[in-house]
Specification:
about 180 residues; 3-stranded antiparallel beta sheet; alpha+beta; 10 strands; single chain; globular; about 25% helix
Amino acid sequence: MRGTLIWSTLKNRCTGTFVCLAAGGREMTVADHTNAKKPPPKPPAWLLKTLMALHVFAYRASGGAIGGRFSGGAPVLLLSVRRRKSGTVQTIPLLYTPTDRGVAVIASFAGAEKHPAWYLNLVAAGQAEIEIRREHKLVRCEIVEPDSERYRSIWRAATAAYSAYNEYQSRTVRKIPIVELMTS
């Protein structure tokens, strides 16, 4: 057929180009303009809200047996914090890393250039409630100093449990915050 392209599935890993065959067997090169450092497109807000609500429901109904671990076995907690603008309570599942003072959560937002809303809400509120399995705790938050040995230590432990954090850091110029949550 005239003007029809038949795309090959091969991508040249060195140059980042795709090779395709045009009708008549003619080869064409098409540049790949995707940037591996950019985060993938964000799903629609309604889908994220629905998935979060389902995760929270399953976690609570099962006492963390469902939704209490992420891929690779990283542990998950539920963080409930008052929103800084509306005053309503937001509950979100987050990966956590145990520390000698409590637990730490990483505000990666998958490497986005801005901080996640839960982090901004937590900083504004200064306190929250966490659920680990069936255990509820009131906690206060403390931002870990980004240039400290404590930050590096928690980061190493977090990336050991979930290695994608290193990729997330490479996507953004901001230093991804670590928040320690300690019982009040």
